Each structure stands twice: as structure tokens, then as C-alpha cells.
Amino acid sequence: MATITRRPFVNHLRADATTFVQHRTGGTVRHEGRAAAFWYVARTATITQVPLDDREQALLFHARTADFQDVTVQASIDYRIVDPALSATRIDFGIDPRTGNWTSTPLDRLGALLTELAQEPALEQLAGMSMADALARGIPPVHERVAGALAGDARLVERGIAVTDVRIVAIRADAELERALQTETRERVQQEADRATFERRALAVERERAIAENELRNKIELAKREAELVEQNGRNARARATEKAAADGIETEALAAGRRKLAETDAAGIRAKGLAEAEVETAKLTAQGAVDPATLMAIALRELAEGLPSIEHLTITPDLVAPLLQRFAAAPGTGAGAGAVGAAR
């Protein structure tokens, strides 16, 4: 927008880079251009101010479809003034030279013109479509129809206006009608949700069954392993008992063999001792066979005396000695015996 500085007799105007200003005095152009700055006399000046920036015009209008249903179209049109000098001749962009405000509403007039130009092709396009098609797939064809109509419209070209973009934001039906149309979709979505829920539950049940079967298989496998373990423990116990019995048998056999060996050794010793004693006795008997009986009797008495307890008093009567002496005397070698008896006396 332009900035006006007031002085006692003259004013100064300075426009920004997005504003086209045209100053006329008495029908003659004195100053003109984008971002212009100049001095002027307010009571004789006619100033036009045209915006050059991009503008947006929002549209909201009703249309009727082929099945006589009312729909609401929400759209937006971007435009700009490409020939401000031409626009200034067709649309009133004049401003008050003292305040700088527009004396009319040129942008509103432009908006109304764009709305009228956009509504006509949109209404024609929607009139050939059913409401369901318009709501579901109506935005692309309506956009194409409106953009094509505005791009080559002579009324815009004559006013130096160019449309830069067209957007069809929404095509909507009455709220109650939309809810009715959404019922089928809601039901289908609900059915899909129920089906997904059932499938999820079935999958959960299937997984639980698989988990239970897996647990059962694990228990069976564990029981089999426990049975194998018990059987193996039994085999190990039997093997240990067998080995222990064999070891005990070997030990018993070794002990018995040792005892037999010892007994045989003892028996051999006893036999050897017996044989030795027998040989000694045989030698004794052989030697005694060569000795006279009186000598043997003396030896026997001596050995008998050695085996008797000690005798402190011995009384020998003639009755005891007489028979013995007679036998000695009757035996061969009586001389020796008499000598022995005499010696005894």
C-alpha cells in the first residue's frame, strides 16, 4: 500500500514494491509505475492504486447433482493483476489523495467476478454427476473444468487479471445425507473390524492350542526322559552291584586261596615236623634198641623223676626195692646191676 505524507500545500506519496500507482492531473498522467514516489497537490490529483501481489479468493457455493441432491462446493482461487494500467481503466482502484484509502471496494468486485466465473463450470460439471460420484470422485473433474474455464476467460484477460491456481477443497452433501451415505461404509468397516477381531481371536485360540500342545509334548518328552533316566539308573545300579559282587568274589577267592595256601603251608610244616619227630623217635628207638634194659630202666626212672614234683621225704621199704633188685639180678649183666645196687646202697 502507498504511504502519504501531508504538508501544508502539497502531499507526498510513496508506494511499496507490490503496488502500482498512477497519478493523473486533468486527465493527464503525471506519474506512473511500481513503487513510485512523487509530490502532488491533493485538490487537483487523481490517484489510482493497484495491488500487484498474489491474492486468494475463497469460494463457497451450492450446486445440484444429476439426481437432484444439493451439495456444497468449497474452493479457492489464486490470482494476480498482470496489467495494472489496463485494470485501472476497467476497475475503480482510485484512492482518496488525502488519506490514501480506496474510494470503492475493487477487490470485492474482483472476488465476485471470480466467484461467478468459477461457479458456472462447476455447476455444469456437477449437474452431470450423481451425488455419490460427486462426493467420491468429483474433485478432480470439477478442478479441471474450473481451471480450464478461468485460464482462457476473456473477461479476465480484458481486466488484466491472470488466475495462477485453482483448488477444489471439498464437495460435501447435507450432514444427514452424508451420515446416511456413510452408514454403508460404516457397516462395511465394522464388518471388517469384526472379521479382523474374529480372526485375531481365532489366531489367539490357535496359538494357545499350539502352546498347549507344545507344553504337552514337552511333558511327554520329559516323562520319557525321566523313564530313560530311571532305566539308566537301574542299569547303572545293576552294573555297580554286578561289579561289586565280582570284586567281592575275586576278593573272597583271593582270601580263600591265601587261606588255602597258608593251610597248605601249615600242613606241610606240620608234616615236615611230624616226619622229623618221627625220624627222631625212630632214631631214638633204634638207639634204645641197642641199649640194655637196665640202662633203659635207669633212663626211664630219671625222666620220670624229672617229671615228678619235688619230694622232700622219701621212704623206701625193703618190700618196694626187693622185687626190683631181683629183676635186675635176674637180667643179663647182673654184675653191672649188682654193682649198681651196691653203689646205690
Describe the largest sheet.
Answer: 4 strands, antiparallel
Shape descriptor reads: rod-shaped
Query: CATH topology of the domain at 52-173, which one?
Result: Tetrahydropterin Synthase, Chain A
> Beta-strand level of the residues, as a percent range?
15-25%
**CATH top level class name of the domain at 52-173:** Alpha Beta
SS-based class: alpha+beta
* CATH architecture type of the domain at 52-173: 2-Layer Sandwich
Order of helices and strands: EEEEEEEEHEHHHHEHHHH
Outline the low-pLDDT stretches: 334-345
Assign a percent range to the helix content.
Answer: 55-70%
Rg, please?
A: 77 Å
Look at the structure and give the mean pLDDT: 84
Q: What is the end-to-end distance?
A: 193 Å
Q: For the largest beta sheet, what order do the strands appear in spatially?
A: 4-3-6-9
Can you tell me the CATH superfamily of the domain at 52-173? Band 7 domain
The total of helices stands at 9
Count of β-strands: 10
